[in-house]
Amino acid sequence: MSAASISICKFVGTISLGLLTGASASLTIFASSLRNIASFSIFAAYILSPRRARHPYMLYTSVLALFTGPGIDYAMALREGSHERRAILDLEAQGEDVNGEQVRHAVERMRATEGVRTLVGGVAFVMQVVGIWGDGA
Fold first, then answer.
1. H/E stretch holding 102
2. How far apart are CA 48 and CA 1, in angstroms?
3. Which residues cross the membrane (predicted)?
4. Count of alpha carbons within 13 Å of 100, Cβ hemisphere only?
5. CA 113, 117, 120, 123 torsion-angle sign
6. Which terminus in the chain has less CB density within 10 A, N or C?
7. Tens digits of per-residue pLDDT, 9-59?
8. How far apart are CA 97 and CA 67, in angstroms?
9. Which domain, by its residues, includes 69?
C-alpha cells in the first residue's frame, strides 16, 4: 500500500481521536461515529503498513479508542456493582416521584463516567500524536 494512503489513515484517525476527546456526553451519536472512524482508520493504517513500519502504538491507540465506548460503561458498572444498576432502574421506573438525592447521585455517576471516557480518549490521542511524530509522518 502506498505511504500516502497510510498517512491519510493516520491523519484521519488522529483528528477523529482529538474530536472524540472533546465530544460531550450530549453528542453520543457523534462520539460513537468518531470512535468508529478513529478505530477503523488507525487499525487500517496498522494492517496496511509494511512489516517494518507496523508500530504497536497504532494497535494500542485503536484498541483504546474502541474502549472509550462500551468498555468504559462496562468497567464502571463492574466497579459500582449490581446494586447501582438496580438503583438506576428503580429511578427510571418511579417516573415523576423521583427523589432529588437520587437524581444528584445519578448525575454525579454520569459525570464520573464521562470524565473517565475523556481521560482514556485523551491518552489515546496523545499516544497517537507522539507516535506519528516519531514516525516523521
1. helix 100-135
2. 6
3. 12-37, 57-76
4. 0
5. negative
6. N
7. 888 888 888 888 777 555 677 888 888 888 899 899 899 888 888 888 889
8. 35
9. 3-135
